[in-house]
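Lab notebook, bench 4. The sequencing result for the construct came back, and we need a structural model before the next group meeting so we can plan mutations. Quick request posted to the team channel:

Model the 3D structure of this chain.
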Amino acid sequence: RAPGETGPRGPAILNSIVSTAWTCNLDKDIPDLPEVETFDGKATTFEERDSIVGKVYQRIMEIESRLLPCGLHTVGVPPTAEESVATLVNIAQLDRAEDEIESLNRVIAASVGRNIDDVYRGANNGVLADVELNEKITMASRAAVGALVELSTDSEGRVKEVKEFDLGSMFNGILGKGKPWTEAIKKAGFPEVDEARMEKLFEYLEFCLKQVVANNELGALTNALDGAYIRPGPGGDPIRNPDVLPTGANMHSLDPQSIPTAAAIECATNVVDKLLDKLKSENDGAYPESIAFTLWGTDNIKTYGESLAQVLALCGVRPVPDSIGRVNKVELIPLEELGRPRIDVVVSCSGVFRDLFINQMNLMDRGIKLAAEADEPDEMNFVRKHAKEQAAEMNVSIREASCRVFSNSAGSYSANVGIAIENGGWESEDQLQNQFLERKGFAFNADKPGMMEQQADMFKAALKTVDVTFQNLDSSEISLTDVSHYYDSDPTKVVQGLRDDKRKPMSFMADTTTANAQVRTLSETVRLDARTKLLNPKFIEGMLATGYEGTREITKRLRNTLGWSATAGEVDNFVYEDANEVFIEDEEMQRRLLETNPNAFRDMVTTFLEANGRGYWDTDEENIERLQELYQEAEDRIEGV
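Done. Here's the predicted structure in token form:
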């Protein structure tokens, strides 16, 4: 840009942006954010200014664009227009190749000669022009979907029924004017958008809107209570698969032998490439040798086996479907085609995954054994390298030493780490780690089908080689601190305790809840989750509006944040400090929480005190004294004193 374009206020504005970014702790997410004490906007070039602003802007838009629950769902109440728009915008941003439907973002980007994948890539890297274009496309998409929803919005701002819209003829002859959504996109700055290219998409979105607002819940509930028939329907994520709507169905799963699907394999390959690129960039170009995975049953139902496909992809193994789509075979991808080493994996399966997908556990075990027995150099096959080392150490065959698929014993579920943390009844982190190893150390062996044998030594030997721990977030409905399951099965500190060098492994999360799939560090993901929920006034007010249970939901997320401190140590001090400022230092907020749900407020105060007592939160004595006084006040309220 020319100097006149920015004007004399440019450096001052840039100084303010940098200062505010530090105040909001964005320095944790932007490693090269300039030091506020020494930074001078006047001394920067225009390119440097754009780079700084682009990276800050990208982080802000990342927070702004996330879906979040604004309160609890009330059975039988139709969604507001705003809620309907938020749902449809996320549905519209996904390409649906099987239905030959292009995403709305892709069509809008094409109207200015850009590929949306390139826009996402540039925005993720903080390229200011791409961050701005991505935001402009997002706003245009919202405007277009808003125009569709507005046609069916009633005077109360809710969508109770969808009014039919003649896609083929209405508005076509009125002075050459396009359909409402086309006009909205043009008004948003994309005058060349192709209306015909969007026709199939908006037919689909109209169908989805009907599914979203269909009021089947109360009828299905009363039928269930009467023991009557309830219409069956598939389970899954409504953004990825709107066919799971409307709600109120008798949910069923899928054919376990059909996963991973071709679409899941494609998405998994994309995530694995991003993960390995990120790991190489943070490790001087070196590949990790071993990655610890957690596989969830319901998540693999929702994604049709994406995380399962990620495990196979890392090992350089290809799932092979038969003529009717059942996936019962695997084959090695030649190293020449793979183009990188085979990465070793240690897979911890949830109890539900074990129950639902025993065939897929067999598939993984056979694939890993194929890799371990392949006659390839150690530097190109870390599965074989580690299996050879463990075989020598434990005096077993390479095939036996390549056991990498673990779970609970039959009939047992979870590591129970979450229960211990929720109850506060644990003495030390060692207790949690031993609990994880004891409960999750049952190996699946394809050579002994139907058996889950306790192989604690094998489990420990595999985990001690791990460089990275990894999980997936693949549904907009449930995130990192919404439930205890994610940290319950996180092995980060377990691995640290087992490694000879006691180095904590890197921890990463894949977020495939949007079209722009991301791989973030665990600490980045915890910060993002805290900013969008626990510390977000919109989330807080939505929960408080639902009363007693809403207050408990807020407290639950603080407790789950503590869980991540205990199992991974990846929660920044500012998360607790800012939460204390929002919920404890604000006397009006104190009063609301105490009056709405004194039990939940007492639990919140207890969680803050526990976080400090266990060394996860460093704060001043004044805060601790205030919390102790509030604990007694909450106790008195509960006891009626």
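The CA atoms of residues 177 and 592 lie 51 Å apart.
Will bring this to the meeting.
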